[in-house]
């Protein structure tokens, strides 16, 4: 799905701003009619949960409504008119006046609604968007809704971040020609000093296609015609981690010599490969340093914010991070575009977090019933997961910063049924994009002895908390556990190994001269212990600390104002560990510890 953009043939109107807002108490399937009679207004983009002082809104389980008036520009009469929602968490119904014109399920991927023939150019309409934050065992991520003895509906979910809901990303009204470029796929490579850009163009009808590639100064370096082909770039400048270089690909749909549609996108020429126990970018070994992150900030919740984005990337540059994982859902596309421009490497993750009934059993890992069963992760769940993969890869396939797909976080890969659930999803991922490695993040219950699906994947991505959840405040014992765990995965798989989560909750300002949990010194020493172990293994290809910044969670008694494993506070102040991480990572320069150029 092409992101809407303004070109010589397309126009774009932002619908961001303040919308009328109300929660809904009607029957779930009752259609919407009429203007909202409400004094409330909500910001878009933003999650709605923290905007208001009313706990009924924050704790609401069900549909909410956003509404505003929209006018279609009068010059769009010959074109198609579409609405674009960058995300609606987790489901949406879209109404033009009182007419239902579109629906979507899935809270982190975009969708379009075609208004052509419904609203005329120059006309106005009342746009109402119903959004539901409900999660069930057949959604991604999953959850369940229970009705208490007081009659209230309550949402339970099995992931450790707050279930923010609403229109958390931008909304657009845009035009495109009736005959237009529908989709673009690029795959890049190089041999010696010559680069290659394989392209595949889909158009809305039979029409001529021509493409051209320009360098960063605007000079044309390659041209071709036809919907499928290869552009050869002499003296190519590669996209590299920490040194981004982007070409500009322009695609034109042409009829009788006249350009009827034009679309451009940035292209970074680079390759990604897993070879033995190495992760290679441009045929060079790459060592990940960075974080699992969250789209999370005060007041906005998961609402995208350009100022927070810029500041977060500045902090990552300051600390020496070269990468992050989009835990635990696809981030706003603006984040990936920024990473493209600044050479930050991204592991792109689906919203499949919580596929693990062992989490309900606590650290025992004993599930109340099997995860992969009709009661929880069933065929409908698998299809929702597959659709999410289709939409994610369709959106992000052309971003050079994305080097690996992570199709699930901490699933019950140690349980019966895991292989049958995941094998078709891995096959689908490779069919949709055969160019990138595929991984999943391993829960602690899944060991090198009992995991059932690792053979399907390219990289072993471990989430491990020795010294925190296990061997708490005993770093000597934790070091022994971690050493044996990594060695076991190396012996079993022969694949590259990386840590996608390791961390310790830390309350800013709490100090001790001993190994005391929650202190700033313990977080620093906990990380240092992990790093000593990582550096012993040449098969190790990366370390991503959990988490970049403190973030909001559900109301668990083990959380005080959220998860405090951040290296930065929720308002982005550094903890003590930030400075020790900075010293380590700035000295690595993307290489495995102990290696040289």
Automatic annotation (TrEMBL):
Swiss-Prot/TrEMBL keywords: Glycosidase, Hydrolase
Protein's organism: Microbacterium lemovicicum
Record-given protein name: Beta-glucuronidase
Residue ranges of every copy of the Glycosyl hydrolases family 2 sugar binding domain listed in the record: 13-177
NCBIfam families: PRK10150.1 (NF007538)
PROSITE patterns: GLYCOSYL_HYDROL_F2_1
Family of the protein in this entry: Belongs to the glycosyl hydrolase 2 family.
Ranges for domain Glycoside hydrolase family 2 catalytic: 272-586
The keyword tRNA-binding is annotated on this UniProt entry: no
InterPro entries xref list: Beta-gal/glucu_dom_sf (IPR036156), Galactose-bd-like_sf (IPR008979), GH (IPR017853), Glyco_hydro_2 (IPR006101), Glyco_hydro_2_cat (IPR006103), Glyco_hydro_2_CS (IPR023230), Glyco_hydro_2_N (IPR006104), Ig-like_fold (IPR013783)
EC number: 3.2.1.31
Annotated GO MF terms: beta-glucuronidase activity; carbohydrate binding
SUPFAM superfamilies, A to Z: (Trans)glycosidases, beta-Galactosidase/glucuronidase domain, Galactose-binding domain-like
């Amino acid at each position: 799905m092409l992101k809407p953009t303004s070109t010589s043939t397309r126009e774009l109107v932002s619908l961001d701003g303040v919308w009328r807002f109300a929660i809904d108490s009607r029957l779930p399937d009752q259609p919407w009619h009429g203007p909202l009679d409400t004094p409330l207004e909500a910001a878009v983009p933003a999650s709605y949960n923290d905007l208001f002082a009313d706990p009924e809104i924050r704790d609401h389980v069900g549909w909410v409504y956003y509404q505003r008036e929209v006018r279609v520009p009068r010059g769009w009469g010959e074109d198609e008119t579409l609405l674009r929602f960058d995300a609606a968490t987790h489901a949406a119904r879209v109404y033009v006046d009182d007419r239902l014109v579109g629906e979507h399920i899935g809270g982190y991927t975009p969708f379009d609604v075609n208004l052509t023939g419904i609203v005329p150019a120059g006309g106005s309409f009342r746009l109402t968007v119903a959004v539901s934050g409900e999660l069930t065992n057949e959604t991604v991520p999953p959850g369940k809704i229970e009705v208490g003895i007081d009659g209230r509906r309550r949402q339970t979910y099995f992931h450790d971040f707050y279930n923010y809901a609403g229109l958390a990303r931008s909304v657009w009204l845009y035009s495109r020609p009736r005959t237009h470029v529908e989709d673009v796929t690029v795959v890049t490579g190089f041999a010696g000093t010559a680069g290659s850009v394989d392209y595949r163009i889909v158009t809305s009808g039979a029409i001529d296609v021509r493409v051209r590639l320009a360098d960063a100064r605007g000079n044309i370096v390659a041209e071709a015609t036809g919907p499928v082909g290869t552009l050869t770039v002499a003296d190519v400048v590669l996209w590299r981690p920490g040194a981004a270089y982007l070409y500009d690909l322009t695609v034109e749909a042409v009829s009788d010599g006249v350009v009827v549609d034009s679309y451009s996108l940035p292209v970074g020429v680079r390759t990604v490969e897993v070879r033995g126990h190495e992760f290679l970018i441009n045929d060079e070994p790459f060592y990940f340093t960075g974080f699992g992150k969250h789209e999370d900030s005060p007041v906005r919740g998961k609402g995208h914010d350009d100022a927070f984005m810029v500041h977060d990337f500045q902090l990552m540059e300051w600390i020496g991070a070269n990468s992050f994982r989009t835990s635990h859902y696809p981030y706003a596309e603006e984040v990936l575009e920024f990473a493209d421009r600044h050479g930050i490497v991204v592991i792109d993750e689906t919203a499949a977090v919580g596929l693990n009934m062992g989490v309900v059993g606590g650290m025992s890992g004993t599930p109340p019933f099997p995860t992969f069963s009709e009661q929880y992760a069933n065929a409908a769940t698998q299809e929702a997961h597959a659709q999410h993969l289709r939409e994610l890869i369709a959106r992000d396939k052309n971003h050079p910063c994305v080097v690996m797909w992570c199709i699930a976080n901490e699933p019950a890969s140690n349980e019966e049924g895991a292989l049958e659930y995941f094998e078709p999803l891995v096959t689908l991922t490779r069919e949709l994009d055969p160019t990138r490695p595929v991984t999943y993040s391993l829960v602690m219950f899944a060991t090198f002895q009992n995991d059932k699906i690792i053979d399907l994947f390219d990289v072993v991505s471990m989430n491990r908390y020795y010294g925190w959840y296990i061997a708490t405040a005993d770093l000597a014992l934790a070091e022994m556990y971690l050493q044996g765990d990594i060695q076991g995965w190396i012996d079993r798989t022969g694949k590259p190994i990386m840590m996608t989560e390791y961390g310790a909750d830390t309350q800013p300002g709490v100090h001790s001269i001993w190994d005391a949990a929650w202190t700033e010194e313990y977080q620093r020493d906990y990380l240092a212990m992990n790093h000593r172990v990582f550096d012993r293994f040449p098969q190790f290809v990366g370390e991503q600390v959990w988490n970049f910044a403190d973030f909001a969670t559900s109301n668990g008694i083990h959380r005080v104002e959220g998860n405090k494993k951040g290296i930065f506070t929720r308002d982005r102040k550094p903890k003590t560990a930030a400075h020790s991480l900075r010293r380590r990572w700035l000295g690595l320069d993307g290489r495995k510890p102990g290696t040289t150029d």
